[in-house]
C-alpha cells in the first residue's frame, strides 16, 4: 500500500506524502506530510498532541504501515493505553505488532544523544517503521551537552528518515522561542493551542513552517471527541473559488404562501440566498418551514439546520398553522437538524452541512439562526468572508438557501443586526417585525431587496393564523412603519405657488379672448 502510494506520487511528479489519517489535516498540508521528513508537533499540555500522534500511528497501521512510538519521561505506556481505549481509532490488535511502544529515557540518560540516535536507528530498521513519534522531545535538548550535539542529533534523525522512508514527529511542550535549533533544523512545525472564548474552549491548529510544500495558512479549529482529533480548516480558505452556478431569475422557488410569493414576483430566484431579518416571534421560522414544505410538494428535498427548537416542536408549530409536515419528515423529504448553540463551531458545521447536501442532494436549505451558525467562536472580522464562502458553496450545489437573523430590539426606531454586513452579501432581504397600531400589535412584512428581480415595494401586514400564513393589505396611509411606531400621514396643503401660477396662466388667456373679440 505504502509503496503504491509513493510510486503514484512519483509517477505524477509529486513529492510522496504520508497521510496523517485526519482528512482535513491532509487538506491543510496539501496532501499530508512529506515522506521521510522531520516535523515538530508543539503545544501546551492538554492540547491534544499525544492523541493526534497516536491517531496517526493507528491510521498508518490500518494502511499496513508500521509505527514506532518512543516516550521520554512522558506518561507510562499503560496509562497511555488506558486513555486511548475509549477512542474509536484505537485497535488493540495493532499494539505490539504494527504500533510498537518504546521507552527511551534510560538510554538517553546513560548514553546521551548518540546512544539515543543509535537506539532509534536500530529499532526503526528492525521494525521497518514508516512513522516515528518521539513524545517528550524537550528532554533531548535538556540532555544535549552542547548546541552542536543537538544539531548533530537532529541531522542524524533527518538522514535516518530519508534513508528508510520514515516520517518523524517530535512532540514538544516548549514555546518556539526556546526551540531555535529545533525550529531551524526540522522540515515543519505544527502548533496546537487551546483558548477560552466566553464559556467555550476553542482548540486551534496552525502550520508555522512547512518546508517544500504549499499549505493552507492561518489558524484552524479542531475538536477532540470519541472519534479522536477532527480538524476543520477555516471555511473561506477552503472554498475560495468564484461559483460557476449563477442565480436564474427565470426559475422561481416559491414559499408556498401565495401572497408572499406574489410580493416576490412568483418566488425567490433559484440558487439565490435570502435573509429573513426580524424580531423574535415575527414569523421567520414558520416562513422558512413553509419554504421547505413547498419544496416537498414539488419533489425537492429540504434541510432545516437550527439551534433553538427541537424537531418535534417545529412539526407542532406547522400543524397549528394548518401545514402538517410529519409525513415529509418521516419519509426523509424534510430533514430537521438541531444543534445546541453553546457547542457550535462554524467551520465544523459548514463541513457537516455541505457533507449532508452532497450525500442527500438537498436543493432547499433553511439555516434558522445565522448568528449561532456563523458568528460564535470565530473572529468577527472573518464572519462576512465565512458567509460569502458558504453562499458560493451552496450555489455551486444548486441550492436555494434561506437564513434567519434576529434583530436586537423588539420595538423602536433603532434596529441593530448582530452580524454587520450580512445584508449586503445575501441576494435577498425580507424584513419582519411587530408594529403597534390602534392599540394592537400587528406583524409587518416587507421585501427590502431582491437582486436580479422586481419585488413588491409596499409594506404589508403579515398574518399567522390556524389556517396558514398570508400577507394582506398595505399600510399606504401610514408613515414610519419600519420603525415600529407608525403615524397617520397628514394631508399636505395645496402649495400657494401653484395657485398663483394658475392665476397667472389665466391672464394671457383673457387677453387672447379680448383680442379675438376685437378682430
Radius of gyration: 33 Å
Ranges where pLDDT stays below 50 over 5 or more residues in a row are: none
Q: Specify the number of helices.
A: 18
Main structural class: alpha/beta
Number of strands: 24
Distance between the termini: 115 Å
For the sheet with most strands, the description reads: 9 strands, mixed
Percentage beta strand: 25-35%
Q: Percent helix among the residues?
A: 25-40%
- Quaternary structure type: single chain
Mean pLDDT over all positions = 86
Strand order of the largest sheet: 5-4-6-7-3-8-9-10-11
Per the principal axes of the C-alpha atoms, what is the gross shape? elongated
Structural commentary:
It is built from 18 helices and 24 strands. It has 519 residues and is an alpha/beta fold. The strands form five sheets. It has a nine-stranded mixed β-sheet, sandwiched between helices. Strand 9 (200-210) and strand 10 form a beta hairpin. 41% of the residues are buried.
Q: What does this entry show, briefly?
A:
By secondary structure, this protein is α/β, with parallel strands linked by helices. Helices cover 37% and strands 27% of the residues.
Amino acid at each position: 500500500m505504502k509503496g503504491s502510494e509513493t510510486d503514484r506520487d512519483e509517477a505524477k511528479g509529486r513529492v510522496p506524502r504520508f497521510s496523517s489519517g485526519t482528512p482535513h489535516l491532509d487538506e491543510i498540508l496539501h496532501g499530508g506530510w512529506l515522506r521521510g521528513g522531520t516535523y515538530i508537533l508543539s503545544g501546551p499540555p492538554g492540547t491534544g498532541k499525544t492523541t493526534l500522534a497516536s491517531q496517526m500511528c493507528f491510521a498508518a497501521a490500518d494502511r499496513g504501515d508500521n509505527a514506532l512510538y518512543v516516550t521520554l519521561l512522558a506518561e507510562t505506556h499503560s496509562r497511555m493505553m488506558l486513555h486511548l481505549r475509549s477512542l474509536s481509532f484505537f485497535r488493540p490488535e495493532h499494539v505490539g505488532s504494527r504500533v510498537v511502544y518504546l521507552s527511551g529515557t534510560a538510554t538517553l540518560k546513560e548514553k546521551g544523544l548518540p546512544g539515543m540516535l543509535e537506539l532509534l536507528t536500530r529499532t526503526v530498521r528492525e521494525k521497518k517503521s514508516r512513522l516515528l513519534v518521539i513524545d517528550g522531545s524537550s528532554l533531548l535538548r535538556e540532555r544535549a551537552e552542547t548546541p552542536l550535539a543537538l544539531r548533530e542529533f537532529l541531522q542524524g534523525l533527518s538522514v535516518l528518515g530519508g534513508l528508510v522512508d520514515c516520517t518523524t514527529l517530535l512532540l514538544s511542550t516548549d514555546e518556539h522561542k526556546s526551540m531555535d535549533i529545533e525550529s531551524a533544523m526540522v522540515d515543519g512545525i505544527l502548533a496546537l493551542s487551546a483558548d477560552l472564548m466566553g464559556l467555550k474552549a476553542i482548540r486551534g491548529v496552525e502550520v508555522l513552517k512547512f518546508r517544500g510544500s504549499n499549505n493552507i495558512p492561518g489558524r484552524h479549529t479542531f475538536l477532540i471527541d470519541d472519534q479522536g482529533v477532527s480538524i476543520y480548516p477555516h471555511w473561506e480558505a477552503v472554498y475560495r473559488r468564484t461559483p460557476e452556478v449563477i442565480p436564474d431569475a427565470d426559475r422561481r422557488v416559491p414559499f408556498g404562501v401565495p401572497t408572499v410569493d406574489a410580493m416576490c414576483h412568483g418566488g425567490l430566484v433559484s440558487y439565490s440566498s435570502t435573509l429573513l431579518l426580524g424580531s423574535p416571534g415575527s414569523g421567520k421560522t414558520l416562513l422558512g418551514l413553509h419554504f421547505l414544505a413547498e419544496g416537498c410538494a414539488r419533489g425537492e428535498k429540504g434541510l432545516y439546520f437550527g439551534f433553538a427548537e427541537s424537531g418535534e416542536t417545529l412539526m407542532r408549530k406547522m400543524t397549528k398553522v394548518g401545514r402538517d409536515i410529519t409525513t415529509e419528515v418521516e419519509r426523509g423529504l424534510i430533514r430537521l437538524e438541531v444543534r445546541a448553540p453553546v457547542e457550535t463551531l462554524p467551520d465544523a458545521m459548514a463541513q457537516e452541512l455541505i457533507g449532508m447536501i452532497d450525500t442527500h442532494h438537498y436543493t432547499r436549505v433553511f439555516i434558522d439562526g445565522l448568528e449561532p451558525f456563523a458568528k460564535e467562536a470565530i473572529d468577527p472580522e472573518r464572519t462576512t468572508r465565512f458567509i460569502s464562502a458558504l453562499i458560493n458553496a451552496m450555489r455551486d450545489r444548486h441550492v436555494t438557501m434561506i437564513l434567519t437573523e434576529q434583530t436586537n430590539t423588539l420595538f423602536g426606531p433603532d434596529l441593530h443586526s448582530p452580524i454587520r454586513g450580512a445584508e449586503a452579501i445575501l441576494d435577498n432581504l425580507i424584513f419582519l417585525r411587530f408594529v403597534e397600531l390602534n392599540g394592537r400589535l400587528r406583524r409587518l412584512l416587507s421585501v427590502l431587496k431582491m437582486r436580479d428581480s422586481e419585488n413588491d415595494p409596499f409594506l404589508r401586514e403579515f398574518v399567522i393564523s390556524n389556517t396558514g400564513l398570508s400577507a394582506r393589505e398595505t399600510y399606504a396611509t401610514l408613515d414610519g412603519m419600519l420603525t415600529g411606531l407608525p403615524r397617520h400621514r397628514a394631508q399636505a396643503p395645496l402649495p400657494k405657488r401653484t395657485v398663483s401660477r394658475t392665476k397667472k396662466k389665466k391672464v394671457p388667456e383673457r387677453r387672447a379672448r379680448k383680442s379675438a373679440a376685437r378682430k
